Amino acid sequence: MTGKKKGDNVSVNSFEDLKAHAGHKITCITYGKPAENAAVECETCNEVLLDFDKNKEKERR
Fold first, then answer.
1. Quick check: helix, strand or coil at residue 43?
2. CB-CB contact of 49 with 21 (8 Å)
3. Alpha-carbon distance 24 to 20, whole Å?
4. Taking a C-beta distance cutoff of 8 angstroms, is the pair 52, 38 a contact?
5. What span, in angstroms and rounded, lies between the C-alpha atoms of 29 and 50?
6. How many C-beta atoms surround the C-beta of residue 40 within 10 A?
7. Which of 6, 36, 43, 44 is deepest in the core (most CB within 10 A)?
8. What beta strand segments (E) does 2-60 contain?
9. What digits encode the pLDDT tens for the residues 14-47?
10. pTM for the whole thing?
């Protein structure tokens, strides 16, 4: 996998970073049953754009 890997949280930090993926195949996927992680991934680049763990969301609140 190129770029950030699952668990690195984000590879997109700016407009330009996100713009680079315009026109690519983007998916939102969950990992685990029940879901413990959700990620927005660029399938074209095989890169995780955003990645959030369920437990870390609870810690932030």
1. coil
2. yes
3. 9
4. yes
5. 11
6. 16
7. 6
8. 26-31, 37-42, 47-53
9. 999 999 999 999 999 999 999 999 999 999 999 9
10. 0.70
Residue with tokens 């879901």: 35
pLDDT at residue 57 above 70?
A: no
Q: Which two tokens stand for residue 26?
A: 């983007």
Which tokens in the block code for residue 20? 């680079």
Task: Write the DSSP symbol of residue 56.
Answer: H
Burial 20-38 (b: 16+ CB within 10 A, else e): bbeeeeeeeeeeeeeeebb
The 3-state DSSP class for residue 32 equals coil
Q: Which amino acid is at 52?
A: F
State the pLDDT at residue 11: 84
DSSP symbol at 24:
S
